[in-house]
Design goal:
- By secondary structure, this protein is α+β, with helices and mostly antiparallel strands.
- It is elongated, with a radius of gyration of 41 Å.
- It starts with a helix and ends with a helix.
- Helix 3 runs antiparallel to helix 4.
- The longest helix is centred in the middle third of the chain and has 68 residues.
- 66% of the residues lie in helices and 15% in strands.
């Protein structure tokens, strides 16, 4: 029995460790972040609250209905105060006996706004405010997606760089062993063996740095996903890179139509215009229609005859004209006009910001695309040069310095190619975000 328990314990340990490791695609990471990200949750709640303001503003156009039903029983006792009876001249109580009364009533009233400029423009402003909040929510979504994709591609890049460094270390380990054996038989100088040893140790240090970089990249992705930073994520490498060649004019046109920050500024301008109209409408009259129906009787059971006896009803239209309310209305209009001017300035700045962002992202995409081609050619050339220098050195016609230089050039070229491939994924996502189409 004890052996069985020990076997179960040791069998569970690797399963528990494995539970902290998961293989995820970039789309799966995005979906996780969209559900767990705090900024998205807060932005979604803010949008819902602002949507309620629109409902409140619209309710001003609906009738106000009020109904009531009541029953009263009152008792007034004899009075302690006296009055002089004019006939007899004798003081008598003002109220000689206890009085008991019963009363019941019901009422129903309706009021409908016919015209109120402030309500109309407040509803329009609430609508544009909600549109602005929706754009803010859209920006939060796309910004979260961009940060997740950027962290994911960085993790892939660091994994590939680590693999490249492991290959470099393996090559120097093999080279050092071979040159040490060649030194033993007198084919190479001791200084060459020492130089190979230095390069081997440098490769080990570089490997440690690559391992640390990968660990930090893994922690960053977990942080974006809302997980523990110690959780291991295995990224799935992309087989193809985005190959859509978008003209700059098309990218700028899409950004002008879809960029969430620009749409937010446009909605703010529209809301400010409605605010000016709403403030100005305080000088206009308001018109309301109203109607009411009421019934009262000492006996509540007579309510069955409320439409036959003891009833009353009224209908009317009221006009309210503001004459003078100090200078508050003038100040409100002036404030709303300044707010409109400010929002227009913000919109113009947003247009310039979007144009600059698109320009920067578009140029970055074009540069990295060219870097991929250049670094691929450079890697191939550096690999061939390394092969030739290794053969020359083995044949005794080359030097260790030439071999070290060619090895360093090959490592650099390979790392540059890896960085260009995954940097392209990141800058392309940034361009999509600038255009407002990142998903």
């Amino acid at each position: 029995m004890k052996k069985l328990l020990l076997w179960m314990v040791f069998a569970f340990i690797p399963l528990a460790a494995f539970a902290q490791e998961e293989t995820l695609t970039v789309d799966q990471c995005v979906n996780i972040a969209l559900k767990r990200n705090n900024d998205i949750v807060q932005s979604r709640l803010q949008l819902k609250m602002i949507a309620r303001d629109e409902v409140s503003a619209f309710s001003r156009f609906l009738p106000s209905v009020d109904a009531g039903l009541g029953y009263n029983h009152s008792v007034n006792g004899p009075s302690s105060e006296f009055r002089i009876d004019r006939t007899t001249g004798i003081p008598v109580p003002i109220q000689e006996m206890k009085r008991v009364a019963w009363s019941s009533y019901t009422r129903f009233s309706v009021q409908q706004m016919l015209f109120d400029g402030g309500s109309i423009f407040n509803f329009v402003r609430a609508k544009y405010t909600k549109d602005g909040a929706a754009s803010t929510y859209d920006y939060t979504l796309q910004n979260t997606i961009y940060k997740v994709k950027s962290a994911y591609f960085d993790l892939l890049k660091k994994e590939k760089l680590l693999q490249a460094q492991e290959e470099t270390l393996k090559q120097w380990e093999e080279s050092y062993k071979r040159y040490d054996m060649m030194y033993e038989v007198g084919k190479v100088a001791k200084s060459d063996v020492l130089k190979a040893k230095v390069q081997l140790e440098n490769a080990r240090l570089a490997l440690l740095q690559s391992q640390n970089d990968l660990s930090i990249a893994n922690a960053q992705l977990n942080w974006e996903l809302g997980f523990s930073v110690d959780r291991k994520v295995n990224a799935v490498d992309l087989q193809v890179s985005p190959s859509v060649d978008i003209p700059y004019e098309t990218a700028l046109e899409k950004a002008t139509a879809n960029n969430p920050q620009l749409k937010k500024s446009q909605a703010d301008v529209s809301a400010s215009k409605a605010g000016v109209a709403s403030s100005s409408s305080s000088f206009l009259p308001s018109v309301f229609a109203s109607g009411s129906y009421s019934w009262s009787n000492r006996k509540l059971n007579q309510i069955k005859n409320m439409f036959d006896t003891d009833y009353g009803w009224s209908m009317g239209v009221s006009l309210s004209i503001p004459i003078f309310q100090g200078f508050s209305r003038v100040a409100d209009v002036s404030k709303a006009q300044l707010s409109l001017k400010s929002s227009r300035e913000t919109l113009e700045q947003a247009k310039r910001d979007v144009a600059l962002t698109v320009k920067q992202a578009y140029n970055a995409v074009q540069v990295v695309k060219q870097q991929i081609t250049v670094t691929q050619d450079a890697e191939a050339a550096a690999e061939e040069d390394l092969r030739l220098n290794r053969e020359k050195y083995d044949l005794g016609s080359g030097t260790m310095l030439e071999l070290i230089t060619s090895q360093a050039a090959y490592t650099t070229a390979k790392n540059n190619r890896i960085q260009a491939v995954y940097d392209y994924q990141t800058v392309f996502a940034r361009l999509e975000m600038a255009m407002g189409v990142l998903k």
